[in-house]
User: Fold these one by one.
Assistant:
Number 1:
Amino acid sequence: MVNFCPECSSLLRKKRFNGKYVLACRCGYEENNTSNEDDLKKKIEDKKNAISQNLIVIKEEDKIFVHPIVSKYCPKCNHNEAEAWQEQTRSADEPSTSFFKCRKCKRTWREY
Ligand SMILES: [Zn+2]
Ligand SMILES: [Zn+2]
């Protein structure tokens, strides 16, 4: 990746500053490198938050299931938030069935 200074169009050079890498120009212009360690940590945190908000993790004996939360209207209470998963009901040749569980009244239903 090559970056040029927006001030004087010279080639920017990477330099280490306060534990972060910044792109700096000989004219004094400095640009924060977006891939520095703090940003990376923040991105990982954001991802963790997103996962904890939209997924349900179910522990069953030695297995762990992760069920996403989807926008589905519950046929019972009309709540628009359901846990979703798929199960192979009959033979492996047939397509799996989608199951939904209402986040509010806990009703479970299926869709083919
Ligand atoms: Zn410059
Ligand atoms: Zn419901």
Number 2:
Amino acid sequence: MSEIVSKCDVCGSQHLKKFVDWKTNNTVLSYVICTSCGLVFLSPRPSSHDLENYYLADYRVEQQGTELPTDQKVDFERRRTIHLLQVIESHIPVIDVHLDIGCAAGELIIAVKKLYGCTSYGIEPSIAYRTYLDTELGIPTFPTLPDYIQSTTLKRKSWIWCL
Ligand SMILES: [Zn+2]
């Protein structure tokens, strides 16, 4: 079951506006942007319960036959990244921190980091993909958004503590 998202998962703002519709197969995915922090996300989106079950049910194995990133998957991501970069560049002039939720093999992170020179993080539920991102690409990657938020909160506290 899909649900309309009424507030930003990162900053809690309810200032959301339509970002882009993306046609894929027989579905149109609608993205909104939080005008307070810049988070772009799917809305409507499947419920948290449905998403958790989907990604726990061997999603990668079903999609590509293995848990690890394949050459075919990385190539698909590179082609998708070209399209996404065109959308991003036309809407967002500066990016200081990029958080890619559902970053898969990290192709979008690499491209955005290269283009904007920003600090980049990924969120990816797959252990095999997170290991690949951390060890092969050096991109800090977290299993969930709450894990990322907790990590950045801890860093902020440490930074303030140093003052
Ligand atoms: Zn926000």
Number 3:
Amino acid sequence: MKVRAVAILGSTGSIGVNTLDVVRLHPDRFSVFALTANLNVDALFAQCLEFSPDIAAMADEASAASLKTRLYQAGSRTEVLQGEAANTKLAGHAQVDVVVAGIVGAIGLLPTLAAARAGKTILVANKEPLVMLGSQIMHEALDHGATIVPVDSEHNAIFQCMPGGGADGMLISGIEKILLTGSGGPFREMAMSEFAGITPEQACAHPNWAMGRKISVDSATMMNKGLELIEACALFDVPPGFVQIVVHPQSIIHSMVQYVDGSILAQMGAPDMRTPIAHALGWPDRIESGTKRLDLIELAHFDFQAPDEIKFPALRLARAAAQEGGTLPAILNAANEVAVEAFLNNGIGFDRIPVLIESAMDTIENQQERSLESVLEADQRSRHYVEGLL
Ligand SMILES: NC(=O)c1ccc[n+]([C@@H]2O[C@H](COP(=O)([O-])OP(=O)(O)OC[C@H]3O[C@@H](n4cnc5c(N)ncnc54)[C@H](OP(=O)(O)O)[C@@H]3O)[C@@H](O)[C@H]2O)c1
């Protein structure tokens, strides 16, 4: 078996740490070629000592300098790169077989594109680039012989419920509908009138999943489900009307695919990202993930509900962006990133997040022609617009 060289972009985050947990179990299958982060020197330093990557990179220059000094003093041979562009360089590096896209936000767009253009196997957790550039990332991957395996638990579940991961096309597979499940977040049962008083700590305390702060807030506003709807359209080449969002508070079924004969295939597992990560790392083989196994008798029952789009307007906004296409998903995504950051810094109330996003979507012109340039421009315009409102 060939040992595959892995580059983990965002190795100190939730996805990165879970990926390294799985990689640690399989030294016969994977070697760590590169690890990247932004600011967290302590965590990257410890990862470098354990996994001895050839290269480590930090976007923040002062952090990179500090890491370099500490690794040198520790006798490590890991080379340290600095600056954001290092992610793009490493994603396309000739010695890398597998790129784990685990950076959070639009910042991951250029590295994901570089990995696609370099024909890598890309494990996509970082959903924002797919939201922004849509199916063009898939086309770039196809054109350059790259393989995209979704890591987001819902999309990984859908991938598992489609023969060949959907690669053989919707009509041939007889697929009728994608059922995208979501827990409904921590405020599913809270009255809307209380939303203004929600604190960042409350929003980041997801009932089922331990995740980074930005995606935790996205889950609380249900924008995460909206972004996932757009992500599903890009990954599986389906229109938004093909995707139904189903609230499933237990987070055990991670999504489903309905077929024309009435069958529904579901993928289940404990809410632990190491399962989809192990699936994506091992694919098409199955490998150990180190997760706790489900006890169905103990679980006893599953619940399903329709999502509440009045209470969670982010769902309506994301569906509108998916339907209108062009640069609108990038406008929505950038506005969301700025609004979430402001909320996390106690700059705005939780209830203001969708208001700011809707304002950006109403104000900034949607360019129907979607290209890397138009998407990056829309991203910048949306950021500046929302920053101006804060
Ligand atoms: N967490 C989950 O369970 C989960 C599930 C599905 C999908 N996702 C998606 O996966 C992505 C990552 O989420 P997360 O929860 O893992 O986020 P997170 O815990 O906040 O981690 C983000 C990672 O990105 C790094 N980073 C930020 N800016 C960077 C830059 N310019 N260059 C290099 N690294 C940079 C951070 O480094 P520092 O630590 O140094 O800041 C950190 O390693 C998001 O797009 C999210 O939507 C996450």
